[in-house]
Fold:
Amino acid sequence: MRAEIGEQPDVLARVLRREAPRARRIGALLRRRGAKLAVLAARGSSDPAAVVAKYHIEWSVGAPVALAAPSLVTLYGARLGLRDALVVGVSQSGRSPDVVEYLRMARRGGALAVAVTNEPGSPLARAADETLLCHAGRERSVAATKTFSAQVACLALLASAWADNARGAALGEGLAQAPARLRRILAAQACARAWAHRLAASERCVVLARGFAYPAALEAALKLKESAGLPCEGASAADYLHGPIAAAGPGLAALLFDPKGPGRPTMRRVAEQLKHAGADLIRADAEGWPEPLCGLPFAAQAQVAALELALLKGRNPDEPPRLRKVTTTW
Amino acid sequence: MRAEIGEQPDVLARVLRREAPRARRIGALLRRRGAKLAVLAARGSSDPAAVVAKYHIEWSVGAPVALAAPSLVTLYGARLGLRDALVVGVSQSGRSPDVVEYLRMARRGGALAVAVTNEPGSPLARAADETLLCHAGRERSVAATKTFSAQVACLALLASAWADNARGAALGEGLAQAPARLRRILAAQACARAWAHRLAASERCVVLARGFAYPAALEAALKLKESAGLPCEGASAADYLHGPIAAAGPGLAALLFDPKGPGRPTMRRVAEQLKHAGADLIRADAEGWPEPLCGLPFAAQAQVAALELALLKGRNPDEPPRLRKVTTTW
Structure:
């Protein structure tokens, strides 16, 4: 897991170099077809990557984005009207049967079906019209790290190309800087190591964020659960204020992902209330990153924290209990 | 909270009687306009109600449904292309500023904007083209109970009317039986009381479900957090198998919502693994309910369990710490 976390700057650079032309082609195709919405199907760590893409596409393209509920298709026989849609299946292995079936249904229904996967010959890639590849090499740790950021990059390239406007260009420029910036984040892991010690002293954790940082909160919570076995929930700070904050108290660590943008007032408000409730507040920052891409540094720091916490707790971060690398659900 | 839980059969009956004509009119309008998708904006307990509607609409109408990320509109200035969309703002009070603003943006952009609220004169109702009302009377407990099921009923009426097909008719028939069925569930609260005792002996909880029961797992987790202060997460059993199950162990109570439909194999698989991990399994059922409406009895049983657990823990269920009835986020 440590090695794979460290590979991310190189993986990102490869994705940008090798997938940008294909993303541009798909973007042009979407504009020509007049695609009006996107639906993203994913499980596990691919799901937070898909949520990042929801934010990028809605912000830059202005097309509404839905997250798929695969069971409606695989279990209840729903057939969705997706003729005007981009439908993306996101899966590291390309072998999540429900995600593959969702993409097949969408393609049969006339959607442009795109696979984002690390495996070119996988069932997901074969079910798609177009494939964007993660170029991450084999990922051996059960917890996805380098493939998460590669998926984010593939999807951000796609959003940028589809948007073809100032916001899309800003996203593209931010992406071009991401490998070097991520290398600096990963070189300075002291901070995330300190988080691990504080998390080790906590019974449970909540990861809170707002706006573009929100999907990274979901991914961080997932990583802390799977790698380190820490009970942990990721949530929007706004949603958290609407109810879950009633369960806050001593023993709770709150990891706050605040990119210091327009969501700052909500983050401050939730931090004050959590402090008052006796939670241990851990503040992450993403200084120097354009806000739409702040999920990358936040998630990378959480990966390191989850790894270090697993080691502190005597768990093997590469092989969490009850998990395999490929989980098949229908 | 106990009184308001008990009012639900009457509230549901009022919604069905008084809102069905308006729902039919909106459904006909959506078909005439050729609406191709829906976007639902909600916070707090209204959010799980919106997720129920995602399942109902995708299943019966076949239109893809997105859940709104309000921050993109309120904080980052996104303007979404929603001309072909139904956009619904769901809010008990009708005063969640971000949900109101989302509906305004959608209406300006040409969407059919519908409010689902308990307050006819609220800002949300004023921002909408059409309003469906909860007829719940004043809700005094901070935790939403009767307004949750009323929102589910309003939205199910709308899905049924929009679909205008066999599935829509089945949804409508199930709804007509719901008040009487819910009365029977609420008369037999012994079961949910027994859950409360087991939950009191647990450090934390996960509520798992698949398919149509999934939104009720989100709502149950929210209720257990806000009313009873129990650390609790609601999740799809399929998503849970893709990672979070690694954090399961003794001290965890797992509340399983299994309507015994096509999601059964996933529920069995997750139950086996949780048992092996040492979790306390609590099984709820929704016998006699048509599966698309199983969220109503599951949520109602969870409301009773949350109330009883709050009382066991010496908490006032009507006034959870750090919460007010109306939470305003932007």
Q: What stands out?
A: Chain A has a mean pLDDT of 97.
